[in-house]
Every structure is written in C-alpha cells, then in structure tokens.
Specification:
Layout (H helix, E strand, L loop, with lengths): L2 H38 L6 E2 L13 E4 L3 H6 L6 E2 L18 E4 L4 H12 L5 E4 L2 H7 L5 H6 L5
Parallel strand pairs: 1-5, 2-3, 2-4, 4-5
C-alpha cells in the first residue's frame, strides 16, 4: 500500500467517523434557530386571510403557489409563480426580501411549512394565505376584501 493510498484511506475513514458529529451540530443549530423564531414570532404573525388583502395590494406582492406542478397547471391565483413547497429554501434566491410575499397551497398546511422555513431563514416579509386556494376562491378571490366589508344585504 502506498503512502498516497494510506492517506486517502485515513481521510475517508476520518470523514465517515466525523460526519455524524457534523450532522448533529448542524441539527442543533437548526433547532436553536427554530426555537428562537418561535419565541419571538407574534401569534398568527405569518398568516393572512384573503379578506385582509385589498384588491389593489395583490399586484404589489410576490405570490407563490407551493402546490405540485400538476395542481398549478390545473389552476392557480392569477400572477402566482409556481414553487413546490419543498423547494422554497433551495430557490430562496428567487424570493425577494424587500416586498410582501404570499405563499399558498390548497388549504394552507404545506404552505405553512414553506413559510415557516423561509421565516426561520430570515424572510420576515412572508405571509401564508389562511385556507389556501380553496378558501380564497370561496371568499371571492381578489374581491374577498370588498365582499367582507360590503354592507349586508337584507
């Protein structure tokens, strides 16, 4: 066995032995970051209802459809971009920090996970559409705010 071969074996073995410790350290860092976020976030601070968004505010937001590509293709909020909820951190460079970002899925559960990940990663401008696409449609879509504030019809 050559000296070069021994060095390669030693480096590989050391890497394999140290890898669990590095993963454990990274996991601890991630847990600490999430714990810190949870201690300081306002209750419901990352959630918004369709009726809280005036029609003229929609064009000012980056709207992310976090559903799968097939669901997006069948229909989405006009102007939304598709970004599968599992890809938001991998594609975070496409998400601005200087304007409102709204993330939605069908009901709000997967987009909540995507939004949580982004907020922990430093995007404090991210909101989750409560109830997702289904509730947005049921409340009137872009007209949800106007409908919610309209006088009751008798």
């Amino acid at each position: 066995m050559t000296l070069r071969h021994l060095a390669l074996v030693a480096a590989t073995t050391a890497g394999l032995l140290l890898a669990p410790a590095v993963r454990a350290d990274n996991k601890d860092i991630a847990i600490d970051e999430m714990a810190g976020y949870l201690e300081f976030v306002d209750y419901g601070g990352g959630v918004i209802f369709a009726e809280q968004i005036p029609k003229d505010e929609w064009p000012k937001m980056v709207v992310i459809d976090a559903r799968d590509a097939g669901q997006f293709a069948k229909g989405h909020i006009p102007g939304a971009i598709h970004m599968d909820w599992r890809q938001v951190l991998a594609r975070r460079n496409e998400i601005p920090k200087n304007k409102p970002v709204l993330v939605y899925c069908n009901t709000g559960s997967l987009s909540a996970q995507a939004g949580f990940a982004l907020r922990v990663a430093g995007w404090d401008n991210v909101r989750i559409l409560q109830g997702g696409m289904e509730e947005w449609k049921a409340k009137g879509g872009f007209d949800a705010a106007a409908r919610a504030t309209a006088p009751a019809k008798h």
